[in-house]
């Protein structure tokens, strides 16, 4: 799902000399218009001659891309699972435990796509604390009436994705776990059968600290979640006051 740390995670992967991950290729609607265009697009990625076209000089041990769940993946899951299994594709599922924090990031990113707070430019990811501070100054207002149903829908989507792709070779990761425990990146490299490297990223986190400082109608959000299965999202922190450096 969007705003689950996938941009940061992909930069970590691409810092490995033997990895070539090609971004969010299915953000282009024409590439996911039907099953045929999806398969043709994947074929182009996996059939590229990496020794001549890749920017890296090292041999590529893992080649892939980033795919959001709402970009045709769920709609055509049966055919995609068949393709994955036939071609030996491995999937890394990256989710976010605190779905309320993810929602705040989605709302803030959507706002900036219109407001363009950084000198008239929209940036989903930033590389300096100064830029991060500017974007974090905006506090979105959450629709408290629909909050519980929206969180429930996100949970159900996650469960459905794992059910759909349970027959594929895959690993499940959570953004917060990677932040807290960087040995998770060792697990990822083992999963991809890569030689171990210290993975790095220049991205800087935008939203950090307690959620009460990031939401305009914090009191309404608190009332909406108190006594629900999502109440823990209000208090759980993710040790996210870090900066992602080289």
Automatic annotation (TrEMBL):
Q: Gene3D superfamilies attached here?
A: P-loop containing nucleotide triphosphate hydrolases (3.40.50.300)
> GO MF annotations for this entry?
hydrolase activity
Which InterPro entries does the annotation name?
Nod_factor_sulfotransferase (IPR052796), P-loop_NTPase (IPR027417)
Q: Which UniProt keywords apply?
A: Hydrolase
Keyword rRNA processing attached: no
Name of the protein this chain belongs to: P-loop containing nucleoside triphosphate hydrolases superfamily protein
């Amino acid at each position: 799902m969007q705003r689950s740390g996938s941009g940061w995670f992909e930069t970590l992967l691409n810092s490995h000399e033997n990895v070539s991950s090609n971004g969010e290729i299915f953000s282009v609607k024409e590439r996911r218009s039907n099953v045929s265009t999806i398969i043709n697009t994947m074929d182009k990625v996996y059939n590229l001659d990496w020794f001549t076209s890749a920017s890296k000089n090292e041999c590529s041990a893992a080649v892939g891309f980033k795919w959001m769940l709402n970009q045709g993946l769920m709609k055509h899951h049966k055919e995609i699972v068949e393709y994955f299994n036939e071609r030996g594709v491995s999937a890394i599922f990256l989710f976010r435990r605190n779905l309320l924090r993810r929602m705040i990031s989605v709302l803030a990113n959507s706002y900036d796509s219109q407001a363009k707070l950084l000198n008239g430019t929209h940036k989903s990811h930033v590389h300096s604390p100064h830029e991060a501070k500017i974007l974090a100054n905006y506090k979105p207002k959450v629709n408290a009436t629909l909050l519980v149903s929206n969180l429930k829908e996100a949970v159900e989507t996650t469960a459905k994705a794992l059910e759909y792709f349970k027959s594929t070779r895959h690993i499940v990761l959570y953004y917060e776990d990677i932040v807290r425990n960087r040995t998770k990146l060792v697990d990822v490299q083992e999963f991809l059968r890569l030689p171990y490297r210290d993975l790095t990223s220049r991205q800087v986190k935008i939203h950090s600290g307690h959620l009460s400082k990031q939401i305009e109608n914090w009191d309404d959000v608190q009332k909406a979640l108190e006594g629900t299965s999502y109440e823990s999202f209000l208090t759980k922190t993710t040790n996210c006051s870090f900066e992602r450096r080289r």
